[in-house]
Amino acid sequence: MNDDALQQPSELGALSPSPAPAAPPPIQASRPTFVFFGVVAAASLIADIASKAWAEVVLSRRTVSDPSIVLIPDHLSFTLAYNPGGAWGLLTGASEAVRRPFFLAVSVLAILFIVSLYGKLAPQQKALKWGLPLVLGGALGNLSDRITRSKVIDFIDYKAKWVESMNRGVAKLVDGWGITDHWPTFNVADIAICIGVALMGVDMITSRRGNPSAAQPATALAPSGGSVPPAAE
């Protein structure tokens, strides 16, 4: 028999299998962009400014005997109001020389904080991706009122029995607290801020749940398909 024929199987057996193709790298989620940030903030700001302009034009024409547009009887209506202070009447009785610089400084600091925090977001922080620009748009909406009018336009009036019950509970703790079934009149900027703050809270909860435990099982540290080597004796 030919010697070359005898050597052929051994040569084929010596051939090593071709390596498996490398797995494609995982697709990295992109970080939130400032374009998205600006669009969402601008949308909430425009909605606030447009709704306030509508409220001033339409509601200012209402008579004293019928000042409101009722949406849900005994619960929700549109009533024009001007708030020189902050939430829950904060600094309403203070002089303009104190009130205006205070709210301007707080607004500027809040805006700087929001922009700085957004630039540090991780791709998975989707709640903050929406929450921060909503807070910014609302803050800018109320800030524009303070700059141009020294007071904020409010027009959404809500009242309910649970609001009265809450105020009665607060009145037991705070002397002079007014008891009413009306929630403080608010606007679209306030809605955007509240939704944004709620999303920030969601991010805090989900971030804590999503963090891996520091004490991981040893098998998680082993190479894929392998086993954990025994400890050296």
Backbone shape: elongated
- Sheet/helix structural class: alpha+beta
Mean pLDDT score, rounded?
Answer: 82
Radius of gyration: 31 Å
Q: Helix fraction?
A: 40-55%
Strand content: 5-15%
Number of helices, where a helix is a run of at least 4 consecutive DSSP H or I residues: 6
Largest sheet: 4 strands, antiparallel
The beta-strand count equals 4
Q: How many domains would you count in the coordinates?
A: 1
**String of helices and strands:** HHEEHHEHEH
Structural write-up:
- It is a single chain.
- By secondary structure, this protein is an alpha+beta fold.
- It has one domain.
- The chain has helices spanning 3-14, 34-59, 96-118, 126-148, 161-171, 188-210; strands spanning 69-72, 76-83, 152-159, 182-186.
- A four-stranded antiparallel beta sheet has the order 1-2-3-4.
- Helix 2 packs across helix 4 (126-148) and helix 3 runs antiparallel to helix 4 (126-148).
- The radius of gyration is 31 Å and the shape is elongated.
Descriptive tags:
233 residues, alpha+beta, 6 helices
List strands and helices in order, with pairings:
Elements: H1 3-14, H2 34-59, E1 69-72, E2 76-83, H3 96-118, H4 126-148, E3 152-159, H5 161-171, E4 182-186, H6 188-210
Antiparallel strand pairs: 1-2, 2-3, 3-4
Summary, kept brief:
The chain is built from six helices and four strands. The protein has helices at 3-14, 34-59, 96-118, 126-148, 161-171, 188-210, and strands at residues 69-72, 76-83, 152-159, 182-186.
